[in-house]
Amino acid sequence: MIKGKVALVGSGFVGSSYAYCLLNQGIANELVIIDVNHKKAEGDAMDLNHGLPFAPPMSIYAGTYADCKDADLVVITAGANQAPGETRLDLIEKNSKIFQSIIGEIMKSGFGGLFLVATNPVDVLSYATWKYSGLPPERIIGSGTILDTARFRYMLGEAYNVDSRNVHAYIIGEHGDTELPVYSLADVAGRPVRDLMAQGVGPNEQQLDELFVNVRDAAYHIIERKGATYYGIGMSLARVTKAILRNENSVLTLSTLLTGQYGLEDVYIGVPVIINRYGIREVIELSLSDDEMKKLHQSAKVLKKANQSIPVH
Ligand SMILES: NC(=O)C1=CN([C@@H]2O[C@H](COP(=O)(O)OP(=O)(O)OC[C@H]3O[C@@H](n4cnc5c(N)ncnc54)[C@H](O)[C@@H]3O)[C@@H](O)[C@H]2O)C=CC1
Ligand SMILES: CC(=O)C(=O)O
To answer: Where NAD(+) is bound, by residue (predicted)?
Structure first.
């Protein structure tokens, strides 16, 4: 069991899936669940506690913002999700207002740990959390493109019939419609995807393009079928939590404030970072192709414009 206290704000589809992952994987020994619908938080805590005879010890309870005071990590999954056909950026107005009040309440508790934001649009709301909290940027982490990267690795693994854990590839940029694949650096067990393609192994150029479109649009495809996505992001958030609480210095594609890297600044956007118990230790600057760099800048432009619409405090 990994020691640490996590406060989860928002116990809907995503929040409760994440909580279930923490319990199953023995990540954190204390979990407080906070939701505007306190009965839902209570119900989830009760339900999860009934799994304890089959899991590592953990204290799980429904609480209030005052319980964030001594948390190592506050994970925010509260707010509206996309209706079919809605984009993530369509959620800015509703969710930024919710964030303004939530972050204020959390900071009033005396909280001094890390934030992990998953609510959409995640890059914009990570930026808002940084602004509203007044904490150093390395302590505000957005889930960014960790889920998109997982989807990408899964689909590439299927295409090459190789375990997705042996596929090394990144999706970067906005967690949304302007994200991009870094095919120039993607490899399967050390063999570059571009070299494999030249040898006639695996997908051709057009198939790789189609594969990326399926990654980018995966949320739309799932929401169309079942109304929301939650298991993939639950696993992704649990992975980040583990990297933080175990001080792993792991490389994950997360949303972070850029301060000159990739020629960009004052924007939260998904890029590979090294993460540990103190937050974002370092942004990894990939040697992108000219086309990839252009697309990353285009994605950042869209996010910067969106950031202008968050209410200032
Ligand atoms: N970053 C990512 O990769 C992903 C992000 N998401 C996002 O996660 C968010 C949550 O999605 P779901 O769990 O499906 O929604 P949901 O509607 O099932 O859950 C939202 C929860 O937030 C609570 N809530 C609403 N306002 C609140 C407030 N002011 N204070 C405290 N709690 C509040 C609700 O009571 C509800 O329990 C959405 O914005 C969704 O788009 C979803 C999947 C992946
Ligand atoms: C909903 C969402 O952001 C996702 O599944 O990617």
So the answer is: 10-15, 35, 40, 65, 79-80, 95, 101, 118-120, 143
Overall number of domains in the chain: 2
Q: Among the bound ligands, name the one nearest to the CA of residue 75.
A: 1
User: pLDDT tens for residues 299-308?
Assistant: 999 999 999 9
Of 126, 142, 158, which closes a domain?
142
For a mutational test of ligand 2's pocket, the pick from 14, 17, 88, i.e. the residue with the most ligand atoms closer than 8 A to its C-beta, is: 88
Determine the residue of 76, 77, 102, 237 to mutate for testing ligand 1's pocket, defined as the one with the most ligand atoms within 8 A of the Cβ atom: 77
Looking at the predicted complex, does its ipTM rise above 0.95?
A: yes
- Spot the catalytic one: 38, 175, 297, 313: 175
Question: Of the residues 110, 142, 174, which one is the last residue of a structural domain?
Answer: 142
**pTM of the complete model beyond 0.80:** yes
Contact between 11 and 26 (Cβ < 8 Å): no
Which pLDDT belongs to residue 312? 79
Residues facing 137 on adjacent strands: none
Q: Distance between CA 62 and CA 82 in Å, rounded?
A: 26
Annotation says 221 is catalytic: no
Query: Which residues form the domain of 155?
Result: 146-307
Q: Which helix (H) or strand (E) holds 213?
A: helix 205-216
Q: Which of 36-50, 88-102, 116-130 has the lowest mean pLDDT?
A: 88-102
